Amino acid sequence: MAIDVDLSAPEVRADPYPLFRRLREEEPVHWSERLGGWVLTRYTHVRTALNDPRLSADRITPFVDHVKESGRSPIGDFARALGLWAVFRDPPDHTRLRAAMNRAFVASTIERLGPAIERLVDGFIARVAERGEMEVIADLASPLPVAVIGALLGVPSEDFARLKAWSDELATVVGTALDMPDKHERAAKSWGTMRDYFAALIEARRSRPPRDALGDMIRAREEEARLDDAELVANAVLLLFAGHETTTNLIANAVLALARHPEALRALKAEPALAASAVEEFLRYDGPVQALTRIANTAVELGGQSIRAGERLILVLSAANRDPEQFPDPDRLELAREPNRHLAFGYGIHFCLGAPLARLEAKLALSRMVARLPDLALAESRLEWLDSLVFRGMRRLRVSFKAHDAAA
Length: 408
Hints:
three-stranded antiparallel beta sheet; five-stranded mixed beta sheet; 10 strands; 51% helix; CATH 1.10.630.10; alpha+beta
């Protein structure tokens, strides 16, 4: 029987891993009419494709060309702006744009954020401690990374909520929502608002750029000519968007895994030093990015299949991270797994710039939750998963715990 890669089916959204296992075993390089591309599910193929210069990260240009033909100008403006994001550019543009953003994400800078992140986490936990329950995403997993990346960019805290709302609309397009016919119109409207917001913020700081991520990018524009005004605005939006979207999913998916595996929860509580390796395992086991897309610039042979120039490849990171050829007993959650060379942050030149920050936020959030929320347990049986080809996450996640006085 032919395999139908229907990622919108409710049972597949809830648990895509049986489908990925079948693809990996039967057709590891599979042509999907439904998705309009080649679906790669084996670790070796996905890792090779992530680092193959013949495969382009630019999946936006074909969309821009399509919009030109349809004449939808607001959507065209949005699509052209997305095309300026470093994650959708190939060298040499990708190299130039990434260099302009690198300074704010060096390891020493990120590590210094630890105490501030821990205070934020403790503050979010204190607000729910006496309730005996929390909605993990709304109460912690979403506001934490928004606050952290907002502070890194120098965005006023009173603007965090509306920036998050605009960003959520962009996620429907960037994440390739499968069941939202008006996603392009909604995302285009939010893009215009975010563009104007960051353009004003940049202009106000251009004469004396602050020592933050946005200031570093302004200096790269003014002093080093590494990016132009449109690229500066577009990639400021990228940092805000990428700096929270996947970290939210990482934290929430990890909490779900712990709630479903009480033995792992007990192990982490008993041995807090496991937190760093536990985060790596959560990234592998049910990571926040399900798949990435590449476009073949030329004809490519992969896994016995002939891929033509212009065809799309869907690299399923979640499937690669459960490949038994790379990970013994891959469906088992093993907090101390070693080695753990997962692909959750990508591989090669597009390896996630914000990986150190995401790791730190997740480590501190999970450590503090486990330490401060006794008897943590899942409080709902029916989960609503995101409508997305790219992102793996939930809309809500309710957990219960033993209520207590946070000040005690």
